[in-house]
Amino acid sequence: MLNGKRILLIIGGGIAAYKSLELIRLIRKAGGALTPVLTRAATEFVTPLSASALAGDKVYTDLFDLTDEAEMGHIELSRSADLVVVAPATADLMAKMAGGQADDLASTLLMATDTPVLIAPAMNVRMWEHPATKRNLALLEGDGIGRVGPDEGDMACGEFGPGRLAEPQAIFDAIMARLGDGPLSGKHIVVTSGPTHEPIDPVRYIANRSSGAQGTALAAALVRLGADVTFVTGPADVAPPQGVRVVAVETADQMLAAVQGALPADAAVFAAAVADWKVLGASGSKIKKDGSGAPPALALGENPDILANVSQMETGRPALVVGFAAETDDVIAHATAKRARKGCDWIVANDVSPETGIMGGDENAVTVIDAQGAETWPRASKVDVARRLAGKIAEALA
Ligand code: CTP
Question: Best of 233, 277, 305, 328 to mutate for ligand 1, by most ligand atoms within 8 A of CB?
Fold first, then answer.
């Protein structure tokens, strides 16, 4: 439940604006309070009256409405909320946010707020894929702004692809994850996931077969329990879950920097399959065959151990640090030694021998090892393993 938490809902002008009315209904049903703000363009798609009737509150549209300024100034309006949600976030609104423009009420509120902001982008697929939108999105994510969607599918303009507003239920889930009363609400958890790519030259790299499935399922399960999750992911096959703050990286060095940048956190879970080695002196241009028939020699250097680095921090170490261990033999003995060597609190060990079908499969069988000993869980789907592990993390942080 949202128990009176207040959401400032900025409705941008796009064909998907009508879906924001359903979002208002879901928020109200969960006991949330709402103040809708419509951009001028949004009023072409939904009427202030319908937004106001569903929200049960006044709707704001114009920066220079002096009556409103007397009732509640725009600074106050932007800060009295627990969360600012922008749905739909049009390409234009995202550009204004990224550029720090404040030329109407919506953009002024977004500049003035000190409250967390969640955007639900919606636009034509070409606009979503335009380099300008990509640049703006990167800036917004760098500023710590959360995002849900967009979805992929048929669009009102007749094209197909990513750009559709996330379903109201998905936006609502992302709001609940931030404001709901889950056992992990108010807790910040960093999760690493996926493989890393270590460049050889601009077109080639060393990688591994991690799909990112277990890390993604875990981040989603933590969000469902109310955690604020920073999801640091290498180039994974699986898309990041909704409702997390995504930091996309390629190399182990970048992953370490991203994790350090995301701290402090209450817990950190390292599900990434980080490459142990990087190519020293990776070539800045494509390595060519030199005609001699001799292959180029690659000098490898060790990557930083991100899990060990964070586990052994002298100040600011997360209260709970969890590592994974993929082993093929003597699973418990190797994983127990790994826990001690790296200094983490728990190691989630799994047997990735080919006959288990776990690597790249949908199921996992894990043993959770802590200072007290080992606890083996029955084989289950990666989603169920994630759910159980998230529950155990919630108990440990309670
Ligand atoms: N890990 C990490 N940084 C690295 C290597 C591993 O953070 N450079 C983390 C992984 O995310 C995982 C744990 O350490 O949580 C164990 O990873 P694993 O590959 O099983 O262990 P290694 O340290 O690589 O040991 P080994 O290859 O010798 O089994």
Answer: 305
